[in-house]
Specification:
Blueprint (H helix, E strand, L loop, with lengths): L17 E7 L1 H4 L6 H6 E8 L11 H11 L8 E5 L4 H16 L2 E3 L4 E5 L2 E5 L5
Parallel strand pairs: 1-2, 2-3, 3-4
Antiparallel strand pairs: 5-6
Helix pairs in contact: 3-4
Length: 130
């Protein structure tokens, strides 16, 4: 009644989980687009973590922490592999500081030592079998 304003929620409503083999974490793993609800609902064997811009907080530590929090709520403890596209300070610190929790949650961070060379360009690569 009167001038009462109703706050509009921006949270993703709860729903059934979606299971996928491979997921690219949206928007260079920026926390503006990905949160705990994303990882509670989008469940994958592999997550690609891109981003190599510390000024833009990509990848975001909050997104990596959201993965841990979201996966902790899964009913099963299926193996999850993170595939970083760049070696970033954020990823290294997160890996070291949360390694024990990663192990408890059956999360592995893939570090690639393979390099693909194509014409005048070379870049790190990994092989995923689905």
């Amino acid at each position: 009644p009167g001038n009462t304003k109703v706050a509009k929620s921006t949270a993703v409503p709860p729903g059934p989980p979606v299971y996928l083999d491979l997921v690219y974490i949206p928007n260079h793993s920026n926390s503006k687009n990905v949160d705990v609800e994303f990882f509670k609902r989008v469940r994958s064997f592999y997550y690609v973590v891109s981003g190599n811009d510390s000024a833009a907080e990509e990848p975001s530590r909050a997104v990596l922490d959201s993965l841990l929090e979201g996966k902790a709520q899964w009913e099963t403890n299926m193996q999850v592999t993170l595939i970083p596209t760049h070696d970033s300070e954020v990823m290294r610190e997160w890996y070291q500081e949360t390694h024990e929790k990663q192990q408890d949650l059956n999360i592995m961070v893939l570090a690639s030592s393979s390099t693909v060379v194509m014409q005048d360009e070379s870049f790190p690569a990994c092989k995923i079998e689905l």
